[in-house]
């Protein structure tokens, strides 16, 4: 304690001497170093603290810049982020595609600017396999009901279904995104979705066809067409409601033509799947069994034919 009191006394004495030499000087802290402006400097610890804060802020800024750097599109890490979703998010987006409520934009309320490729990839894969399997099962059941129907396994339908579904879910969103980008240059108020958001909208809109294809196993034609029309109406409504916030800023003819094309392509997809994968098999050509010739009793047979019949 005595040493501390002595140190405080010396500091006070030095400050008094400085004030006597420079009457205009002022003290603001315990430190006592005269600045070039004639003032006694403030505590040096505050200046060191400010430098530490500046260094910490620079470190944080560098860290944020490192986090914001996105990997290149040729790297695996770039595509890995689009598969980083959990089951609850996928189920929520499927529910949003099945129940398109007015005023609830699928992209803003369900995707939340975080599109994924996990859901669209597996929805398309499931739909392709379900189409091929149910198409073959339909023909097997038809053969059991009618033996004259000839059936052989049609494995090529798996390839046809996969190519058709994946091309539709990839090329149509690409064309739509390109058209909206072109219209954005004409109508500056338009704000189109990104390409991945457009793919995500189309991918989730195909989910409703998976249970519909399974219901097509019911061998009632009018019921199959009813299920198909309902699924098409529900899926098309989801697409139109998701795209309407983007195209409504365009002119009415352009918006109407775009939405009509979207619905038309969706209708062609559903109609093509129904007619190709669930077409009836051709009936076997059955040769009628030979019947014995009925000859009238008055018909006279040749003598040679009668002798050959008698010997037999």
Automatic annotation (TrEMBL):
<feature type="transmembrane region" description="Helical">
    <location>
        <begin position="254"/>
        <end position="277"/>
    </location>
</feature>
<dbReference type="InterPro" id="IPR006977">
    <property type="entry name" value="Yip1_dom"/>
</dbReference>
<dbReference type="GO" id="GO:0016192">
    <property type="term" value="P:vesicle-mediated transport"/>
</dbReference>
<feature type="transmembrane region" description="Helical">
    <location>
        <begin position="201"/>
        <end position="219"/>
    </location>
</feature>
<keyword id="KW-0812">Transmembrane</keyword>
<feature type="domain" description="Yip1">
    <location>
        <begin position="98"/>
        <end position="271"/>
    </location>
</feature>
<protein>
    <recommendedName>
        <fullName>Protein YIPF</fullName>
    </recommendedName>
</protein>
<feature type="transmembrane region" description="Helical">
    <location>
        <begin position="117"/>
        <end position="139"/>
    </location>
</feature>
<feature type="region of interest" description="Disordered">
    <location>
        <begin position="18"/>
        <end position="51"/>
    </location>
</feature>
<feature type="transmembrane region" description="Helical">
    <location>
        <begin position="225"/>
        <end position="247"/>
    </location>
</feature>
<dbReference type="InterPro" id="IPR039765">
    <property type="entry name" value="Yip5/YIPF1/YIPF2"/>
</dbReference>
<keyword id="KW-0472">Membrane</keyword>
<dbReference type="Pfam" id="PF04893">
    <property type="entry name" value="Yip1"/>
</dbReference>
<dbReference type="GO" id="GO:0031267">
    <property type="term" value="F:small GTPase binding"/>
</dbReference>
<feature type="transmembrane region" description="Helical">
    <location>
        <begin position="159"/>
        <end position="180"/>
    </location>
</feature>
<dbReference type="GO" id="GO:0000139">
    <property type="term" value="C:Golgi membrane"/>
</dbReference>
<keyword id="KW-1133">Transmembrane helix</keyword>
<comment type="similarity">
    <text>Belongs to the YIP1 family.</text>
</comment>
<feature type="compositionally biased region" description="Polar residues">
    <location>
        <begin position="24"/>
        <end position="38"/>
    </location>
</feature>
């Amino acid at each position: 304690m005595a040493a501390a009191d002595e140190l405080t006394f010396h500091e006070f004495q030095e400050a008094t001497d400085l004030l006597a030499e420079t009457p205009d000087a002022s003290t603001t802290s315990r430190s006592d170093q005269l600045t070039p402006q004639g003032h006694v400097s403030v505590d040096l610890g505050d200046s060191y603290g400010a430098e530490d804060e500046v260094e910490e802020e620079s470190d944080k800024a560098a860290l944020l810049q490192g986090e914001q750097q996105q990997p290149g599109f040729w790297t695996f890490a770039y595509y890995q982020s689009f598969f980083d979703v959990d089951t609850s998010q996928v189920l929520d987006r499927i529910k949003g595609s099945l129940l398109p409520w007015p005023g609830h934009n699928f992209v803003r309320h369900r995707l939340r600017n975080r599109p994924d490729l996990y859901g669209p990839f597996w929805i398309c894969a499931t739909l392709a396999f379900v189409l091929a399997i149910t198409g073959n099962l339909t023909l097997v059941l038809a053969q059991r009901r009618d033996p004259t129907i000839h059936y052989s396994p049609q494995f090529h339908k798996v390839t046809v279904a996969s190519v058709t579904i994946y091309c539709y879910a990839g090329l149509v969103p690409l064309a739509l995104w390109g058209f909206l980008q072109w219209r954005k240059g004409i109508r500056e108020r338009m704000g189109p979705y990104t390409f991945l958001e457009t793919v995500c909208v189309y991918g989730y809109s195909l989910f409703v066809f998976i249970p519909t294809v399974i219901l097509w196993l019911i061998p009632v034609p009018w019921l199959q067409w009813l299920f198909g029309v309902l699924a098409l109406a529900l899926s098309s409504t989801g697409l139109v409601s998701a795209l309407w916030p983007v195209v409504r800023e365009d002119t009415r003819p352009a918006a109407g033509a775009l939405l009509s094309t979207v619905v038309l392509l969706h209708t062609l997809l559903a109609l093509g799947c129904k007619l190709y994968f669930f077409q009836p098999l051709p009936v076997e050509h059955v040769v009628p069994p030979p019947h014995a010739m009925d000859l009238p009793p008055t018909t006279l047979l040749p003598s040679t034919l009668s002798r050959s019949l008698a010997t037999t």
